[in-house]
Amino acid sequence: xxxxxxxxxxxxxxxxxxxxxxxxxxxxxxxxxxxxxxxxxxxxxxxxxxxxxxxxxxxxxxxxxxxxxxxxxxxxxxxxxxxxxxxxxxxxxxxxxxxxxxxxxxxxxxxxxxxxxxxxxxxxxxxxxxxxxxxxxxxxxxxxxxxxxxxxxxxxxxxxxxxxxxxxxxxxxxxxxxxxxxxxxxxxxxxxxxxxxxxxxxxxxxxxxxxxxxxxxxxxxxxxxxxxxxxxxxxxxxxxxxxxxxxxxxxxxxxxxxxxxxxxxxxxxxxxxxxxxxxxxxxxxxxxxxxxxxxxxxxxxxxxxxxxxxxxxxxxxxxxxxxxxxxxxxxxxxxxx
Length: 337
Hints:
This is 3-methyl-2-oxobutanoate dehydrogenase (2-methylpropanoyl-transferring). Its EC number is 1.2.4.4. It is an enzyme of class 1 (oxidoreductase). One of its GO terms (molecular function) is branched-chain 2-oxo acid dehydrogenase activity. With about 325 residues, this protein is α/β, with parallel strands linked by helices. It folds into two domains: about 1-200, Rossmann fold (3-Layer(aba) Sandwich); about 215-335, Rossmann fold (3-Layer(aba) Sandwich), CATH 3.40.50. Helix content is about 35%, strand content about 20%. The chain is built from twelve helices and 14 strands. It has helices at about 5-20, 45-50, 60-75, 90-95, 100-105, 135-140, 150-165, 230-240, 255-265, 280-295, 315-320, 325-335; strands at about 1-5, 25-30, 55, 75-80, 115-120, 145, 170-175, 200, 215, 220-225, 245-250, 250-255, 270-275, 305. Helix 8 (about 230-240) crosses helix 12 (about 325-335). The radius of gyration is 19 Å and the shape is globular.
C-alpha cells in the first residue's frame, strides 16, 4: 500500500474521482497550472485539461456562485478556498444558496459541491491564515461538515464527499498536511510515512460520512476531538498515563452521537478539545449533547479545552494552540472531580 501525506491523499481523492466521473471539476485560486498554494491539485490540470481543473479569479463569492450553478446544471464541482479564513465573502452563497437548494426545490434539485479549505493554525499564519470556522457551518441546515485527522481518512472522506448529492464543507487541518502533529512544536516533525494512517490505497474507496472512530480505547475518561486535536489528545493521554478513550469525530455534521454517548456512559467523564475559540465553538454543542444524554452517568463536570476568545495571535502561537499540557491538565481535573 502506498504511503501518502495528507496533501497527496487529498490530491489522490480528486484524481480518482475525476478519473471515474467526467462531471467532477476542480477549480479555485491558483489550483490549475500552479497546483494550489499547498500543491494539493498539482498535476490535475495537466492530466485532465483546463476545462476540468482551472484557475478562478480572486473572488470567493464568485467561486461558490459558479460552483452552485454548475451543480444545478449537473456537474460535481470540488472547489478550493485557499485558506478557511477567506471563506467569509462566500458565506452567503454557501448558507443561503447551496445549503437550501434541495429544500427550496422540494428535492427537484440538489447541490453536489465540495468546498475544500485548509483550516487551523500551528504554522505561524497569524490572524488571517489560522482560523477554525467549522462551527459557522454546523449551524446551517443542509450542509455537511468534515474535518479529517489523517491521510487515510482524508482520501476516503473526500471521495465520499464528492459523490454525495449535497454540499459538503471539507476542512483540512493544514498543520497535519505533512505529519501527525501532536502539539510538541519543539520536536522534529514526524512524517506520515512513519505512521500507520499514512498508508493509503491508491484506488477508489470511501469512508461513511457521519461515523466517528475511536483512536484509543480507555475506561477512565472520554476525550472528544477532531482534526489536529486528535493527535494532541492522544499525546496528552500517553503523557499523563490516564486511561483515556479518544474519539476522532471526523464528521461534525452529521454527528456520530451514538459513539460519544456509549463512550461517556462507560467512562463517566468527558473532555472536549478543539482549536477554535471557546465561545460558541462546536465543543459547546458536544457538551450540551453529553449533558442531555449522559447526565446520570457523569461523575465530574465536562471540561472544554479550546483556543482563546481572541484573534489567532502570531506572537503567541503556542499559548493559543491547545497543546498536550493544557489537555493533560483537563484530564487530571476531571479525574479529580
